[in-house]
Amino acid sequence: MLDQTAADTIAFPLPMLLEESCRVIALVREDLAHPKCQFIWKTSTFGRAFSLAALSHECLILDQLNIGCHLDFPTMTMGLLSRHHLETWLTGMYLLEGGSEALELFLGESHRASTTLHKKIQELQDQGQALDIPNPPCVDNTWEPKRWNFEFVANALEQLSEETGRIKGVLETYHRVYRALSGLHGGHPTHRVLDSYIDTTHGFAHILRESQAPPLHRELLQWSIMLTSTHALLALGDVGLPTATFAEVIQSLTPTDRT
What is the pLDDT, as a whole number, of residue 226? Predict the structure, then answer.
């Protein structure tokens, strides 16, 4: 999905994408300041509040993708930003759609990770190592420790989407986009990533200062705009705010055969 051919055929012109991105960011931030997005802080509102926080974080990353397009960031850097955006979207959508089960998994992972970090640093300090590192306190909550996994989240969202019909193609997004961003476009230092720095055209291996990976700025930005708009459409619509603009953005940027 994320290759040069796709970028040439489905990505819209950069000025249009930047304009739409700024429009979505501005509208989301305006809506998040609305009284309808203010909740009494209690367990029953945790999931919705954290989902809206994820939406706000998506806008921050989207803004960074805009900057990356303006400054022509390396494809690998754009891929890292886009991958983090997708992780945030999966998290926010699962918290929105998954109810108490999603919240327990989300907060349970926080408890597990905090406890594990505290334990490992304490073990090092007991051995006379890492004495200059302050051991952070464990997260003070009563949630059962759980392990968060994005593939599990994608599968859970796919199942929920079959029941509600509110979202589509979550598993396809995970396998075709998330895995590509992880293995091919900078998420991990894989063979494909490092090979893009090696030029063997003259029979010798010349190590280049920059990756020769094809630019995917427009496609990555377009995809992130659509994901943010989808999250906003559902999350802000659920609290009673108008969502027509987000629907228009999704429709206008949905890839079609433009050859």
Answer: 96
